[in-house]
Structure formats: structure tokens, C-alpha cells
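Annotated sample (chain length 170).
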Amino acid sequence: MTFGQQILATLIGTVSGFLLSIVLFWIKEKWATCKTNSFVVKNAQAELDIGISILEKAKNEISKAIEKVTVQDSSVFVNINYSRMARMFLIQFYNSGLMIKKLTVDEINKLNNIYINFAEGSEAHLIKTLDSYSKGETTPKAALNSLTYERELIQESITDLTNFRKKIGQ
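Output written by the structure step:
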């Protein structure tokens, strides 16, 4: 083998090894990204499940309160934990760029509004309304209007969260 052939063989071997290492690195990164994305999607779905569960419980509590107000029972109390609706993994889902791939901009805004609507302030407003009703400061009709609105908002939000959960799993 001549000196030129040795140089050419070495060059071909080096370039081939370099290209193979790039391909292997790309495959490894693609696999790691798919694994991470799968983890983020599953956690976002679990977080939506938790939100749906919290809203279902709140809807049941509000339905019981509506029944009490309807019969003008002033000992109305609701135990609602909107503050337990976490969005840590939904934020991670958003930051990873997956949310914009799975949901439309309108759906993302709707999801954000759901979590804004069911914050501690909303919970406190509902409790204040019932407290005012119990003290006779609010009419039964006003309390019923507030409770009915809240229950309808919850039902709409449960439907939306369920649809979002299905959509991000596709």
C-alpha cells in the first residue's frame, strides 16, 4: 500500500467514524426526547385528571348547597379545594413546546382561564356568598344564582378538561 493510499484509507476511516458517531448521537437524542415527551404528556394528563376530580367534588358540594338553599336551610357549608388544582406539569408541557403542537391557541387560552377561574379567590367568593346567605344578608335567589352559575362553570370546565386530556394523549 502506498503512502497516498494509507492517507486516503485513514481519512475515509476517520470521516466514516465521525459520521457514524453523529448518527448515533442523533438517534440517542431522538430517543431521549421521545422518552421525555412521553413523560411530560403523561404527567400533564395526570394533572388534568386531578383537576377534573377536584371539580367533580366541588360540583357535588355545590349541588348539595343548592338543595339546602332551595329549602331555605341557612346552615349551608361547602368544602371546596380549588387551591389543590396544580399546574406544574402543564407549565412544563407548555415550556417543552408540546402544548402548542397538541392544542390550538384558543384551547390553550381556555385551559389557562379554567385554572384562573378556579383559584383561591373563586373559592373564597363562594364561601363569602354562602356566609352572607347564612347570616341573612343575601337573599336565597342571589345565593342560588351564584351557586348555579358556579356549578354550570364547573360542568363546562370538566367537559373542556376531559377533551383537552384526550387531545394531548393523541
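Annotation: The chain has a mean pLDDT of 89.
Annotation: The CA atoms of residues 82 and 121 lie 9 Å apart.
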